[in-house]
Design a protein that fits this description.
Blueprint (H helix, E strand, L loop, with lengths): L25 E2 L17 H16 L6 H12 L3 H29 L1 H18 L6 H18 L2 H11 L4 H30 L1 H22 L16 E2 L9 H12 L3 H16 L1 H14 L4 H26 L4 H22 L6 H13 L4 H12 L3 H30 L3 H20 L16
Antiparallel strand pairs: 1-2
Length: 459
């Protein structure tokens, strides 16, 4: 059992980034900020916050399982081209990323609970409205814009914000666990949603997503807390108590200001470039187009969706393991290995697609699952190393590049299928891009000291 390490002196040098302790902090090993004694041996509240965050991301992840299942049904019912449907998905993915840095800044202004509760409500409304759509522009508006904006506020920047505020020790591990929550949501919902689509149509599946998102809102509002100081605690692994900072005004100005400052540095562009390729090769390609590509080769939709769910199983294992590795090994080298292995696996995929599931395909699914979002913990760690207190917002912008890459390939994949009659060219191109990402990761250098980005006029 993990106990409250604020009452211990064990801490590795790599667990505490420079700049976390602020002048004027006081040691609080035996009492809260209000003087209330702590009960020895109690599990630190940070772990309960992490659990609520995990469950929240799982509930929101239901919507991410659906786009790949809708391409064929919407094409058949409305006679929309795959490129048109792919465009709606690309709008969703792009807004998912572009909203993230502003959401991180809004969490600093209004608190995590308010932002996340509103985001889940928007996801639910957008998904529900698709049930009554009759034109392609409505798909773009409801699924692309509304669900995209809501999901962007529930993006990995949410996990990064919770980790940065509540944890000093075990940050890599917690990042891996929270990142894996998205895969867990896919695991929970994808087989059921594919069954609904195949036997009852796409509308019940869309309603299920809406209900899943709104059902999480009470848990967020009642159980989530914005900062350790709200309950009179230091962050997990911290030796000093940090008072809760006041609201940071000008969320949009701060998000843009952090971008301008970070964009002057080389590591930002390398991280953004590698993460764009990450998004292109996962959310944009496999999550969106694997099911219709497998169906093109005669595989039933339910079987193809079940394979994606298996990716979700091993994604959990791979991401948590990656967080553990990130606490112990150099992050940029981990990224290079992850991208190189992913590229090799994508080059073999066109040869593995068949009407039935066979052992080589299962090997690909397991391998790709382990690597799916293993890139997230080392990417967040590199943002933290280079940009300090602004790392959550910087990661939000890096995540924006991830989703722009995903959006481009979600659209291009649909167009390629319409033009060439298959997805083969997209698999090969993505494999080559992953090789380039591996080389880019190796170019990133570790900073001599951790210095947060300073934005003029922003506290």
């Amino acid at each position: 059992m993990l106990m409250d390490v604020t009452q211990t002196t064990e801490r590795s040098a790599g667990d505490v980034p420079a700049g976390d302790a602020r002048a004027g902090d006081t040691l609080a090993p035996a009492a809260t900020a209000t003087g209330a004694p702590r009960t020895p041996g109690r599990i630190h509240r940070a772990w309960f916050v992490a659990v609520v965050t995990f469950v929240t991301i799982i509930g929101a992840a239901a919507f991410a399982s659906l786009p790949g299942l809708l391409i064929d049904p919407l094409h058949q019912e409305f006679d929309w081209s795959r490129g048109t449907i792919g465009f709606a998905v690309s709008v969703n993915l792009a807004l998912y990323g572009l909203t993230a840095p502003f959401a991180a800044a809004l969490m600093d202004r209004f608190g995590i609970r308010r932002v996340v509760a509103v985001a889940l409500t928007i996801i639910s409304v957008g998904s529900l409205l698709t049930v009554w759509m009759t034109a392609a522009w409505q798909l773009v508006l409801f699924w692309g814009v509304l669900v995209g904006l809501g999901s962007g506020s529930m993006a990995l920047a949410f996990a990064a914000t919770v980790t940065n505020r509540w944890f000093v020790a075990k940050r890599g591990l917690v990042t891996g666990i929270l990142t894996a929550a998205g895969a867990s949501g896919q695991l929970v919902f994808l087989p059921f949603l594919s069954w609904l689509v195949e036997h009852h149509g796409w509308r019940p599946a869309s309603i299920t997503v809406a209900l899943a998102a709104i059902a999480v809102v009470p848990f967020v509002w009642l159980l989530l807390r914005d900062h350790p100081a709200d309950v009179g605690l230091a962050a997990y692994g911290a030796e000093t108590y940090t008072p809760k900072p006041g609201p940071v005004p000008g969320a949009a100005r701060r998000a843009v200001g952090v971008l301008v400052s970070a964009a002057r540095t080389g590591p930002f562009w390398l991280l953004a470039g590698t993460f764009a390729i990450c998004g292109a090769s996962t959310n944009g390609l496999v999550k969106t187009h694997f099911v219709p590509a497998a169906h093109d080769h005669g595989m039933p939709i339910t079987a193809a969706a079940s394979l994606l769910a298996v990716i979700g199983v091993f994604d959990v294992v791979g991401t948590i393991a990656s967080g553990w590795f990130t606490d112990r090994f150099e992050a940029r080298r981990l990224l290079a290995v992850y991208y190189a292995l992913r590229g090799v696996s994508l080059l073999f995929l066109p040869m593995l697609l068949a009407p039935s599931v066979h052992p080589p395909m299962l090997f690909f699914i397991v391998f790709y699952g382990l690597d799916w979002v293993a890139t997230v913990p080392p990417t967040i760690a590199l943002c933290r190393e280079h940009y300090g207190d602004d790392s959550a917002i910087v990661f939000g912008w890096v995540l924006a590049s991830h989703q722009v890459g995903a959006a481009v390939v979600a659209f291009a994949g649909g167009v390629a299928r319409d033009v060439f009659g298959s997805y083969d060219v997209v698999w090969y191109a993505s494999g080559a891009l992953c090789a380039a990402a591996a080389l880019m990761a190796l170019v990133i250098r570790r900073p001599p000291t951790v210095r947060p980005v300073v934005v003029a006029g922003v506290a």
